[in-house]
C-alpha cells in the first residue's frame, strides 16, 4: 500500500502518499489501525484527534509543511497540517511538540480550511 484516503461527504476523497522511507514503523502502525473514524478538532490550521495508538517517536520533527499528516506522540493524536498553527512564525505549520510525519497530501490540502471540525474516515488507498 502506497497511500491512504481521507474521506467525508463534503470533500469526497483526499489521497495522501505514505512516507514509508521516512517513518516506516509509524506507517505500519497506522496501516494496522485502518480503517478508522475521524472526528477531528481544530488547532490553528491543523486538524487533530486522539486515537489511542501509542506509537513511539521515530524521526521526529516540529517544523512541518502544508499537507503533512503526522502522529503527535505527546497527545497520542493524528494531525493534518494545512496552514499556520498557533506556534507558527510564518506560513509553515509548527507542531505543538515532536511529531512523526507519516504521509503527505496529494492535491490541495487547503480544502481542510473550511472545517472547524471534521468528521470522516481514514482508510487504505492503493
Summarize the structure.
This protein has 126 residues and is mainly beta. The protein is 8% helix and 45% strand.
Structural class: mainly beta
How much of the polypeptide forms β-strand, as a percent range?
over 45%
Number of strands: 9
| SSE string, helices as H and strands as E | EEHEEEEEEE
Biggest sheet strand order reads 1-2-8-6-7-4-3-9
The level 1 CATH classification is Mainly Beta
Rounded radius of gyration (Å) = 13 Å
CATH topology: Cyclophilin
Measured between the Cα atoms of the first and last residue, the distance is 5 Å
> What is the mean predicted local confidence, pLDDT?
97
> Helical percent range?
under 10%
- Tell me, briefly, the overall form: globular
Uncertain regions spanning at least 5 consecutive residues: none
Topology readout:
Layout: E1 3-8, E2 12-18, H1 24-33, E3 36-42, E4 46-50, E5 61-63, E6 68-72, E7 77-81, E8 94-105, E9 118-124
Antiparallel strand pairs: 1-2, 1-9, 2-8, 3-4, 3-9, 4-7, 5-8, 6-7, 6-8
Verbal overview:
The chain is mainly beta. It has one domain: Beta Barrel (Cyclophilin). It is 8% helix and 45% strand. The chain has one helix and nine strands; from the N terminus they run ββαβββββββ. The protein has one helix spanning 24-33, and strands spanning 3-8, 12-18, 36-42, 46-50, 61-63, 68-72, 77-81, 94-105, 118-124. It has an eight-stranded antiparallel beta barrel with strand order 1-2-8-6-7-4-3-9. A hairpin with a 3-residue loop joins strand 1 (3-8) and strand 2 (12-18). The longest helix is centred in the N-terminal third of the chain and has 10 residues, at 24-33. The chain is globular and about 35 Å long. The model has no long low-confidence stretch (mean pLDDT 97).
Amino acid at each position: 500500500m502506497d497511500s491512504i484516503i481521507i474521506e467525508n461527504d463534503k470533500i469526497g476523497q483526499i489521497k495522501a502518499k505514505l512516507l514509508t522511507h521516512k517513518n516506516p514503523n509509524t506507517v505500519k502502525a497506522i496501516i494496522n489501525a485502518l480503517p478508522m473514524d475521524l472526528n477531528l478538532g481544530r488547532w490553528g490550521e491543523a486538524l487533530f484527534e486522539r486515537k489511542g495508538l501509542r506509537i513511539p517517536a521515530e524521526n521526529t520533527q516540529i517544523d512541518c509543511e502544508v499537507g503533512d499528516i503526522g502522529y503527535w506522540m505527546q497527545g497520542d493524536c493524528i494531525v493534518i497540517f494545512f496552514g499556520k498553527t498557533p506556534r507558527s512564525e510564518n506560513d509553515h505549520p509548527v507542531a505543538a511538540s515532536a511529531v512523526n510525519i507519516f504521509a503527505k497530501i496529494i492535491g490541495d490540502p487547503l480544502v481542510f480550511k473550511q472545517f472547524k471540525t471534521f468528521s470522516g474516515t481514514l482508510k487504505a488507498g492503493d
